[in-house]
Recover the amino acids of this structure.
């Protein structure tokens, strides 16, 4: 935030973001294609032995296969049928998912419709801002969770819904709430919610093969499932080796036996083209057949999530910009984002397919390195900085107060007996793994400077039920300064990304992971 | 092919292209104008709701301060003017006049603490401020559409069509100075009865 503030025209941002979204959507289509291509060779043997052979009869089938042309015909028929099955099946599943998408998303996030009396402030905000945006008033849903967050779903503005968590209502003042609701309504108005809902549906479909395997009644035995997973992994490795060896053979053939290659190519032009074509197809399809189980089970959903995250990142800026068009209050939204960011923990129970929907990226404990690589949202700091440039700027003091409010909110959360949408954490069970998301340092040499270096002590906290680690930098890969025993008193100085900036009684300053259980010391 | 044929062909193509472009521009203008009308109906609904709240409000005050006849008359007149008003500017002026009259009414109410605390009155006041807020938001949407329409009408391809086919610029729904302090600044709603954020910090001015 050291660069001089440049005013950003809201309209410019809108146009730029629309273009970026289109580009990314095209990329998404390209990445989904291998999923379909991978399904085809999987289906080929089924159709070959299960459909064609019984349909034609054993004798006729063998007679057709005895000639090269017949062989090719059978192969082509198999491939065409497989393609048809995949296309029709894909369209059917996609159609079904699309029709149900909104309801699915609402169900798997445990959102519940809320009446006007239960949340009058929220209702008024939704009504007023949808008047300002010229949208039909969407339905209002609430997730019973203390984790502050919000999202919008719906395939079109007429059937859209705005969902907020109970925690958001508790954390934000009306000004912040207006900013957040305006952001979500902008998602609806820009049809991002359509894109995001479809994205959630697509991701759910891509997870289907693995989900089917693990949930199918026939394959309940964990040994069977593990065997399948192991086999698919083994086949993927073999496929990779096969591809490499084929490439190596081609290289060797070209370098060492160039004369033979020339003869071979001459033979193709003279002799049986179909035969060679068949060999080529087998060379190409062999590895694909072997590798496809792995891609269908694991690869596709991972790639899909990654691209989905990238697709959903740009519209966040756009929705922020449009929200300002509605409220004319960049500071309100910026402070709300800071508060929500500072108050996030890992308690919201969500499937990963829904992560991209939310206002602020939810921290999911089970997110692997793959998902952490591409967050589905731009860094909060960047969004806040852009918002600050749209208005007359956000004062560091206000930011600081907002961060403290967020952290206070999180620390005050009742540890035992969370709400229904929260991840249940019975006492004695191992708490959820810390979200050791790595701090987005601008460059390795430049140390990540805290947002508010001059801020004094905000409050005091105590290390909770398990010992904590004090890092030198806001980065879990940095040097460990100390290990703090349960009950150690610390001075809280601020929040840096996913870390709390604290100081011990021996004047050692350092950073604690934000997910560290701590208790609020009410001096 | 002779040169004359070529020229005739070219001219015909050009003519068709010009006509098509004109039709497209005209359609865009009509679409834009319809959007303005729809946005206006959004304001109109809220203005009507506001006007319909007034009689109850006046009655509840009259029960305590029947002698303040002048204020009641002013409010009734302003309400009538609002219901009669046609066009954005006239409606905006009438609405501002009603706001002023209501200001006088609430000044009277200040002298009657029991009335101010009565449940009926606070409910009415809450409804009224809710409507006022909605008018402000509807006004924002309307003015954005007017801006779009007027710009389209005054910029290049539109200006040729608009002047010849009877399109006229739409009126903005302006607020009086008192309304501006309430509306254009910080749209966060305060709790009812809400304080008027007259000294709120200036934010980005609306493009209107």
């Amino acid at each position: 935030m050291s660069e001089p503030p440049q005013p950003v025209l809201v309209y410019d941002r809108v146009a730029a973001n629309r273009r970026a979204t289109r580009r990314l959507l095209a990329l998404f289509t390209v990445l989904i294609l291998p999923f379909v291509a991978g399904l085809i060779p999987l289906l080929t043997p089924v159709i070959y032995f299960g459909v064609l052979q019984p349909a034609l009869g054993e004798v006729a089938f063998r007679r057709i296969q005895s000639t090269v042309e017949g062989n090719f015909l059978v192969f082509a028929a198999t491939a065409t049928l497989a393609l048809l099955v995949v296309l029709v099946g894909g369209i059917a599943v996609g159609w079904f998912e699309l029709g149900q998408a909104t309801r699915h998303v609402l169900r798997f996030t445990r959102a519940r419709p809320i009446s006007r009396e239960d949340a009058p402030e929220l209702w008024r905000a939704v009504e007023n801002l949808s008047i300002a945006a010229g949208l039909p008033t969407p339905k209002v849903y609430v997730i019973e969770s203390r984790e502050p967050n919000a999202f919008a779903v719906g395939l079109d503005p007429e059937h859209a819904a705005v969902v907020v968590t109970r925690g958001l209502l508790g954390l934000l003042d009306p000004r912040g709430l207006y900013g957040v609701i305006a952001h979500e309504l902008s998602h609806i108005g820009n049809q991002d919610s359509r894109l995001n809902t479809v994205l959630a549906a697509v991701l759910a479909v891509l997870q289907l093969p693995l989900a089917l395997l693990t949930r199918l009644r026939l394959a309940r035995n964990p040994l069977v499932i593990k065997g399948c997973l192991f086999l698919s992994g083994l086949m993927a490795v073999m496929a990779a080796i096969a591809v490499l060896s084929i490439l190596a053979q081609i290289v060797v053939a070209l370098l060492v036996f160039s004369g033979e290659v020339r003869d071979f190519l001459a033979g193709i032009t003279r002799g049986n083209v179909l035969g060679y074509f068949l060999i080529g197809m087998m060379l190409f399809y062999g590895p694909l057949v072997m590798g496809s189980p792995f891609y269908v089970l694991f690869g596709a959903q991972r790639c899909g999530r990654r691209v989905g995250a990238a697709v959903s990142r740009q519209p966040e800026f756009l929705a922020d910009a449009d929200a300002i068009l509605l409220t004319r209050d960049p500071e309100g939204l910026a402070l709300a984002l800071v508060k929500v960011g500072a108050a996030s923990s890992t308690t919201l129970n969500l499937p990963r397919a829904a992560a991209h929907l939310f206002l602020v990226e939810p921290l999911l404990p089970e997110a692997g390195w793959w998902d952490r690589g591409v967050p589905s949202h731009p860094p909060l700091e960047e969004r806040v900085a852009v918002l600050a440039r749209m208005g007359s700027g956000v004062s560091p003091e206000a930011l600081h107060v907002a961060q403290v409010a967020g952290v206070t909110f999180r620390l005050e959360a009742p540890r035992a007996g969370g709400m229904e949408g929260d991840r249940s954490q019975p006492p004695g069970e191992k708490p959820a793994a810390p979200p050791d998301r790595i701090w987005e340092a601008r460059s390795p040499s430049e140390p990540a400077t805290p947002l508010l270096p001059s801020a004094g002590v905000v409050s005091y906290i105590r290390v909770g039920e398990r010992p904590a680690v004090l890092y030198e930098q806001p980065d879990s890969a940095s040097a460990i300064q100390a290990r703090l025993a349960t009950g150690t008193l610390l001075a809280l100085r601020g929040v840096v990304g996913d870390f709390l900036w604290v100081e011990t009684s021996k004047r050692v300053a350092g950073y604690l992971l934000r997910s560290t259980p701590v208790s609020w010391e009410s001096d | 092919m002779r040169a004359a044929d070529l020229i005739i062909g070219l001219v015909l193509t050009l003519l068709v292209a010009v006509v098509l472009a004109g039709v497209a521009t005209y359609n865009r203008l009509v679409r834009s104008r319809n959007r303005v009308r729809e946005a206006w109906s959004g304001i109109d609904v809220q203005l009507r709701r506001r006007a319909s709240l007034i009689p109850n409000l006046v009655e509840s005050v009259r029960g305590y301060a029947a002698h303040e006849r002048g204020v009641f008359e002013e409010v009734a007149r302003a309400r009538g003017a609002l219901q009669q008003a046609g066009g954005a500017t006239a409606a905006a002026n009438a609405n501002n006049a009603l706001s002023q009259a209501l200001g006088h009414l609430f000044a009277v109410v200040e002298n009657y603490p029991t009335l101010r605390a009565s449940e009926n009155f606070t409910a009415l006041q809450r409804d009224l401020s809710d409507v006022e807020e909605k008018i402000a938001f509807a006004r924002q949407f309307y003015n954005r559409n007017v801006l779009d329409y007027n710009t389209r009408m005054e910029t290049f391809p539109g200006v040729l069509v608009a002047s010849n086919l009877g399109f006229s610029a739409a009126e903005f729904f302006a607020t009086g100075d008192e309304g501006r302090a309430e509306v254009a600044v910080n749209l966060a709603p305060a709790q009812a009865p809400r304080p008027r954020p007259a000294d709120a910090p200036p934010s980005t001015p609306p493009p209107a």
